[in-house]
Amino acid sequence: MQCKQVLPVSIVSATWNECKTLSALIQGIHEALSNVPHEVIIVDDCSPDGTYMLALELADKAICKERQGQSIALLAGIQEAQNPIVVTIDADLENDPSNIPRLVKALEKGYDIVVAARPMVPRFSERLFATTLGKRLGVTDVLSNFRAMRREQVKNIPLGPSETFVAELLIRAHKLGLRIGQIDVAHTQRRSRPRIGGTATANLRILKALVISLMILLKPSIRPSRTARSRS
Description:
Blueprint: E1 9-15, H1 22-32, E2 38-44, H2 51-58, E3 61-64, H3 70-80, E4 85-88, H4 100-106, E5 113-117, H5 124-137, E6 147-150, H6 151-154, H7 167-175, E7 180-184, H8 199-218, H9 226-229
Parallel strand pairs: 1-2, 1-4, 2-3, 5-7
Antiparallel strand pairs: 4-6, 5-6
């Protein structure tokens, strides 16, 4: 019996002052994908703590760019990816790299994007996001940045300049007719000083992102032809 070919994977992470966690993240990625060809791409928003210099040593590719937000940084990494499967993951160790194979395997069910959904989201703004958009998009954790994607299906999805914490990618994928699924993952501890800011700041930023996301979702769009949406 012929063994099924394992597709290579590109791991993309956007960083901002992640010097303390980057080594553990990349080590965890290599351990999780020890039997799978893969590359690690770090897109750093010019962190002042030396994250980019460390990424140059540890990652397969490191990109330093002006700070424009997580969504734009991740899209830059996806466009640089060389492999057919792309996994995005947070650099603060909130996402467990050992779940990467599960995410990738879930794509075999015919999905174009698979989200790793947390059992509980701590901020009320995140729960409102899930309640408002989750059912429409087919996921319970809209703001989870831990995702596996087919690169050819998402690399050219345009993202606007406003930060939506990558919710816009799911929305535009949904509007293009791409198939979105999810797997459930165990909760991991969030760091004490998250990239997005403290509780009040984070809730305000997420609520703003929700308004922007709803505008994108409700804006009429021309649906591509079946031929244009089909994979080669």
